[in-house]
């Protein structure tokens, strides 16, 4: 079932993608996170990311802190609210990124 729903994220019909997102939200399987994040990053989905972020709400997003802040700062209002809900309800550990020359 999970593979079927993830495949629907690539469908051109936004209603099909939205229904897949609702189902992924209800299933709550964190294995969907990489595919959802990939779909969120696609430029053609920019106007339709609210449902994709909604699907992430109850999934393990601990490793997505930079992505969630990007959505919070640059998404439309629906995306911002979804990102804020995730940030409010999940625990995150900040690890400073240190680059060496």
List keywords for this structure.
60% helix; Leucine-rich Repeat Variant; ARM-like; mainly alpha; 101 residues
Q: Quaternary status of these chains?
A: single chain
The separation of the N and C termini measures: 46 Å
Overall mean pLDDT stands at 93
Order of helices and strands: HHHHHH
Number of strands: 0
CATH architecture: Alpha Horseshoe
Query: What class would the helix/strand composition place it in?
Result: mainly alpha
**CATH T-level fold name:** Leucine-rich Repeat Variant
Low-confidence segments, given as residue ranges, are none
Report the portion of residues in β strands: under 5%
Report helical residue fraction: 55-70%
- Please tell me how large the radius of gyration is: 14 Å
Structural notes for this entry:
The protein has a single domain, classed as Alpha Horseshoe (Leucine-rich Repeat Variant), CATH 1.25.10. The longest helix has 14 residues. Helices cover 60% and strands 0% of the residues. With 101 residues, the chain is mainly α. It starts with a helix and ends in a 12-residue tail after the last helix. The mean pLDDT is 93. Helix 1 packs antiparallel against helix 2, helix 2 runs parallel beside helix 4 and helix 4 packs parallel to helix 6. This is HEAT repeat domain-containing protein. Keywords: Plasmid. Pfam families: HEAT_2.
């Amino acid at each position: 079932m999970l593979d079927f729903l993830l495949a629907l994220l690539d469908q051109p019909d936004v209603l099909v993608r939205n229904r897949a997102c609702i189902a992924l939200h209800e299933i709550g399987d964190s294995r969907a996170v990489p595919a959802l994040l990939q779909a969120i990053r696609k430029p053609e989905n920019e106007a339709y990311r609210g449902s994709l972020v909604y699907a992430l709400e109850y999934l393990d997003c601990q490793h997505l802190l930079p992505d969630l802040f990007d959505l919070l700062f640059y998404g439309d209002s629906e995306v911002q609210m979804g990102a804020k809900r995730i940030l409010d309800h999940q625990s995150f550990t900040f690890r400073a990124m240190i680059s060496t020359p």
